[in-house]
């Protein structure tokens, strides 16, 4: 199993005096952490995509390109690319260029995103949420698999005998499908034979087992090699020397962030009792000491029938 780290490039980091650091410093420190992760053997780093004040990841491929210049081995992925509001031609070109810069380490995790601010920002209608993603994923795969593209759709001009460059080192360029909890999304990924990245940020991990089974069954029914139907998990996590230290350092920022997001979505405020249930044996959060975290990752893998990759999102709490 590969172990990775995902980040949304938080703009909420504070200095020793409790003052927010500048955005430029936050990005420099993020690149330093990525450089360190590469040196200690972390397999993958993922940068999200948001268009909000709290995060600095609106141009993830730029951050990943800067990281490519400072690293040698770590895989460089999106986490996720909000494909529904993006031009698949530009997405492919950006990540093909990243693949060339990094000598074959780029990957795309294509999803719809869990925030909605990008839809009005780029002039799209939320009523087209599902149709946009399906069409743009189809185009992205067409571009990946064909140097010269012929394609027609609803949401962008047709492509007729149009060549798309540059081409990446990796052939094919890895494209994962990022999913939440919609059964149709799991089935789509299986039918297409694409690896699956499941975002599990709350509840109990084992509740996703039937959905992962849907994915694997759909893939095998479509004729894909079961060995290629890889499953990864993106989860919130934090490791400290002791469980008590992990809770003390992680909970305040986690509660602040998710209470703020909850106000936008009608969720109740985060409480310590809720948090403790989430870091329990079957809860989604992977927070604790080294032994506890390792054991929980293996438990999650077993619950979902085996994982190829587990990616921790470590900066949700705005840790210093």
TrEMBL record:
Positions of the Luciferase-like domain: 18-302
One cellular-component annotation, GO: cytosol
Pfam families in the cross-refs: Bac_luciferase
InterPro entries reported in the protein's UniProt record: Bact_Lucif_Oxidored (IPR050766), LLM_Atu2307-like (IPR022290), Luciferase-like_dom (IPR011251), Luciferase-like_sf (IPR036661)
Annotated keywords: Monooxygenase, Oxidoreductase
Gene Ontology MF terms: monooxygenase activity; oxidoreductase activity, acting on paired donors, with incorporation or reduction of molecular oxygen
Sequence intervals crossing the membrane: none
UniProt name for this protein: LLM class flavin-dependent oxidoreductase
Species of provenance: Marine Group III euryarchaeote
